[in-house]
Amino acid sequence: MPTVKIKRLDSELPLPSYAYPGDAAFDVYAAETKTLLPQKRHSFRTGLSLEIPEGYVGLVWDKSGLAIRQGLKTLGGVIDCGYRGELLVGMINLSSEPYTIERGNKIAQMVIQKKETVTLEEVQELSPSERAEKRFGSSGK
Q1: 73 φ/ψ angles, rounded to the nearest 5 degrees
Q2: Locate the dUTPase-like domain: which residues (predicted)?
Q3: Residues contacting 101, CB < 8 A, separation 6+
């Protein structure tokens, strides 16, 4: 089992944690209080830095309750293993109402997973597929 090392930048905030045994993601907390106005975004500090093991990546995802009930979405959620700065969580308020995130509130969740490095190869043509160039909604309702 890989270990993610955590450096607290703010000793008053809880460490990230899994809510339930078997959860795929651990919760991340806000280090600041901020009212997010409708259609506005903000990069929230978390008060921690991570050392993600080589060969792994951290993926930041929405807290489903905030996304469904308040319309808050996370933005730009790929944390590479070499990054050692403060973890920031970009969020946007897609609702029509302001929403205040309080310091210490859960704002996102993070999954740590193995990553694959692929070879990128430029070609003149791609192999055919059944889907081909069909776009959004191509599989029906």
Answers
A1: -120, 145
A2: 13-140
A3: 30, 33, 34, 35, 36, 44, 72, 91, 107
Phi–psi pair at 68, nearest 5 degrees:
-75, -50
Q: What is the pTM of this model?
A: 0.88
18: domain CATH number?
2.70.40.10
| Percent of all residues in the chain with a pLDDT value above 90, rounded to a whole number | 89
Distance CA(114)–CA(16), nearest Å, equals: 19
Q: Count of domains in the chain?
A: 1
Q: What is the largest CA-CA distance in the chain?
A: 56
Q: Dihedral of the CA atoms 18, 19, 21, 23 (nearest 10)?
A: -70
Helix (H) or strand (E) holding 84: none
Q: pLDDT digits over 102-115, tens only?
A: 999 999 999 999 99
- Amino acid type, 15: L
